[in-house]
Design brief:
alpha+beta, 4-stranded antiparallel β-sheet, 5 helices
Length: 255
């Protein structure tokens, strides 16, 4: 989906701040300011984008998936949901989502799993076409910021859907996210964001088939009293109140 074909949004300025492409199977990290909207757009079908979030000012505060699910009475994330830290604050909010379900149960693929399923292609013999896995990819990015294995918490697997069948088995949905699928994250704190586009751990396709993602940043508009993430549930209202106290504000609305 081209930039010009996407609708305008009441949540952010129309003119992008910057745009980049995360190639299929690669990894990326950056510090993003509060008040940034990051649009994630799949360039190919079958994408998986594993994401970690940390408070950029104090990286001991990080994404907490159990609290995010419990606070919002959900088993997956989509539009209107907030990404909570382990301090009860909101790191980011999902303000737009075209696929409706993002996996938070299954964690990351690892080297042994990828090798067993697809064989091995290292940088020595395949260069940038090497087979990467989600765990090692995010560990590389964590290392760039002085973090390590103990900081590898449960990620969000954007664009992946996993449900439970009648026998209690996890089922990965291969056709969940067509090319051009979009998720928009609004950063509610200064955050360190880490991404891996390696395959989902339950991806059972016969060939190694990661997909590229376009990253587009925008300047967010001030939060309004009727913002869908703020009003989604009472817990989210309290989460934004916790953010306001952190920034020494009376309210996050209008900021």
């Amino acid at each position: 989906m081209s930039q010009s074909s996407l609708p305008s949004s009441p949540h952010y300025d129309a003119q992008p701040l910057w745009e980049d492409i995360l190639p299929a199977g690669f990894h990326w990290s950056a510090r993003l300011r509060r008040g940034t909207v990051l649009r994630l757009t799949t360039r190919e079908a079958g994408a998986n984008l594993s994401a970690l979030l940390f408070n950029a000012e104090e990286k001991l505060e990080r994404l907490n998936i159990p609290d995010s699910l419990k606070a919002q009475h959900t088993a997956y994330l989509t539009t209107g949901h907030a990404c909570y830290s382990d301090m009860g604050r909101i790191l980011a909010a999902i303000i737009h989502d075209t696929v409706g379900w993002h996996d938070v149960w299954c964690g990351l693929s690892d080297a042994a799993q990828i090798a067993e399923r697809y064989g091995s292609k290292t940088y020595a013999d395949a260069r940038n076409a090497m087979y990467r896995n989600g765990r090692d990819s995010l560990l590389i990015e964590l290392g760039k910021w002085g973090l390590g294995k103990r900081d590898l918490v449960t990620p969000i697997n954007f664009f992946s859907k996993v449900s439970v069948d009648a026998e209690g088995q996890l089922q990965w949905h291969a056709d969940h996210a067509p090319a051009g699928s979009v998720v928009e994250l609004r950063l509610e704190m200064d955050c360190l964001l880490l991404l891996s586009s390696a395959p989902h751990p339950l991806d059972h396709r016969p060939s190694y088939s990661p997909a590229a993602i376009t990253l587009t940043a925008f300047a967010a508009h001030p939060l309004t009293v009727d913002d869908p993430c703020l009003t989604a549930c009472a817990e989210n209202t309290r989460g934004y109140q916790n953010n306001a106290r952190y920034f020494n504000l009376s309210s996050m609305v209008g900021v």
